[in-house]
Design brief:
Blueprint: E1 6-8, E2 11-13, E3 20-24, E4 31-36, H1 41-59, H2 64-79, H3 82-93, H4 97-114, H5 117-120, E5 124-130, E6 133-141, E7 144-148, H6 162-167, E8 171-175, H7 182-191, E9 201-203, H8 208-216, E10 220-226, H9 229-241, E11 245-249, E12 254-258, H10 264-276, E13 286-292, H11 298-308, H12 328-343, E14 347-350, E15 369-372, E16 389-395, H13 398-407, E17 410-411, E18 413-417, H14 421-430, E19 435-438, E20 454-455, E21 458-459, H15 466-472, E22 474-482
Parallel strand pairs: 7-8, 7-10, 8-9, 10-11, 12-13, 12-18, 13-16, 15-16, 18-19
Antiparallel strand pairs: 1-2, 3-4, 5-6, 6-22, 11-21, 14-15, 17-20
Length: about 500
């Protein structure tokens, strides 16, 4: 099987590294491709950076109106290939075909918003800020930028960053997860058709060595990352130590509070989709479900009935609600955390371990799991599981639930299900999380808004998407001008 190539300086290029990893289909363990890996991939980053730096010096002077025309072209190319692209995503990441198509749509929406860059990056101007003196603030690109992306959204997350960086005049390097490189390979077939300078957008494969080369290279000025909290902290600390702008999205442990006045039928369906969508492998997956004053067990029973009917299997098969987790190691880790919760006193309502799918016996499958009465002072309630596991706990008041929500280390998302506007307002005001959902199970911001995150869920100041992305990929310059021939001391 051929080793995947990098895309550097407008050309498909063999890696300097002879070390490789296999890319596996999580549902079958079939080898889909081999990807470059190891120390020599750092040389690939060096080559990509040289190309990107040269392209930047040309691209930054292209009028912004012309720069966004490239994005319109890219949008059209992706829209014409949604079905084959979604199939690639499903085969390498494990999610269902519908989830893959939804992810691509979110990527397209970010391209659409970035097409508004001529307005979004507009500066400010004040005439006669002093007598005969005008002052303006303009935005200019920062230079060579890079993103390091995770396995769970092979197409979408790159587009939180790439279109904004290009539209604002920067060049760009993409380092996809070595677990899911094929989606970006397909997207770079589209990029190869764009009318852009060679080296403007580059693709390099690899693991930690590639990442460290990106973090250390002096010509790379800004880095965008999405992944686990320990790695996000590493990316942020090392990147900023090398003088770079960094936005690093970390992990999460997302709580959902259900009040007695919530619409139970609607709420349980939405919560189930939130917990088990993408097999729980997303940073906005609901993890801990807190029922308030549910003494009759109404919510618990409704959740059980809703969840037990979900179908696990290969994401391209009909009628499948949830695919496998990404690797055998992930499956083993999640199974260990389930057992840890049981050992800590939790009661098992649904046990998704020991799941086998006919025809895909080697797949990394776990069925939906529900653990009840998870201990509040033990490991499981604090650990990001990143799998199809719901922790169900009960509390007496909304104040008690809010205190619990705000006690955690993470702050990516918190959701409330209620029929009360007053309760909703209190929750959105007091919950310490960057993304708040009211009767919403996945509070994923649309492309016009930043993908927010607080506490250990985000390191940096400006997030991906929308105006935050425009600000991240530009630097402000203040210009003060005087043109009258006669000097005036008036202010």
């Amino acid at each position: 099987m051929n080793i995947l190539k990098n895309y550097i300086n407008g050309v498909w290029t063999e890696s300097n590294s002879k070390e490789t990893l296999n890319v596996l289909n999580p549902a079958s363990q079939d080898v889909l491709a081999t990807v470059p890996y190891g120390a020599d991939t750092a040389k690939d980053v060096m080559a990509a950076t040289v190309a990107a730096s040269k392209a930047y010096n040309e691209w930054r002077h292209v009028p912004v109106i012309k720069r966004v025309q490239v994005l319109y072209q890219l949008k059209s190319l992706i829209e014409n290939q949604i079905e084959p692209l979604a199939e690639i995503i499903t085969n390498e990441s494990g999610k269902t075909y519908a989830e893959s198509k939804g992810e691509i749509q979110r990527a397209i929406e970010n391209i659409e918003v970035a097409c508004g860059t001529p307005m979004l990056m507009a500066g400010d101007f004040i005439e006669d800020i002093a007598s005969g003196i005008d002052e303006m603030m303009i935005r200019q690109p920062v230079g060579v930028c890079a993103c390091i992306t995770p396995f769970n959204f092979p197409s979408m997350i790159v587009f939180w960053f790439l279109p904004y960086a290009i539209a604002t005049g920067n060049s760009f390097i993409v380092k996809p997860s070595e677990k899911v490189p094929l989606t970006m390979m397909k997207i770079f077939e589209f990029i190869d058709q764009l009318d852009i300078p060679k080296g403007l957008i580059n693709l390099v494969h690899g693991g930690k060595e590639s990442v460290d080369a990106i973090l250390e290279h002096p010509e790379i000025k800004a880095i965008s990352f999405v992944g686990s909290t320990p790695v996000a902290r590493y990316i942020y600390s090392k990147g900023t130590a090398h003088g770079k702008r960094v936005q690093a999205q970390g992990g999460a442990k997302n709580p959902v509070v259900v009040l007695p006045d919530a619409d139970i039928e609607m709420s349980t369906k939405i919560i189930a989709d939130s917990v088990y969508g993408c097999a729980g492998q997303r940073c906005l997956a609901a993890s801990t479900i807190i029922t308030v004053d549910d003494h009759n067990r109404t919510v618990k029973e409704a959740l059980y009935e809703t969840v037990k009917g979900r179908t696990t299997g290969y994401g391209l098969d009909q009628g499948v609600d949830m695919g496998p987790v990404i690797t055998a190691e992930s499956k083993t880790r999640i199974e260990g955390l389930i057992q840890k919760g049981i050992d800590e006193g939790a009661n098992v309502l649904l046990d998704g371990r020991e799941t086998s799918i006919s025809g895909y016996e080697k797949g990394n499958f776990l069925a939906p799991t529900i653990l009840e009465n998870v201990a509040l002072d033990k490991e499981l309630i604090k650990t990001e599981i990143f799998g199809p596991v719901m922790s169900l706990i009960s509390m007496n008041t909304v104040e008690e639930a809010l205190n619990f929500v705000n006690s955690g280390n993470y702050g990516n998302m918190a959701c409330l299900f209620t029929g009360s506007g007053a309760s909703a307002r209190k929750f959105r005001n007091e919950a310490n999380a960057g993304n708040i959902g009211i009767n919403i199970g996945v509070a994923a911001p649309m492309a016009q808004f930043p993908f927010s995150g607080w506490k250990d869920s985000f390191f940096g100041d400006l997030h991906g998407q929308g105006k935050h992305a425009i600000e991240f990929f530009t630097q402000t310059k203040v210009v003060i001008e005087r043109w009258p021939k006669k000097w005036s001391r008036k202010f």
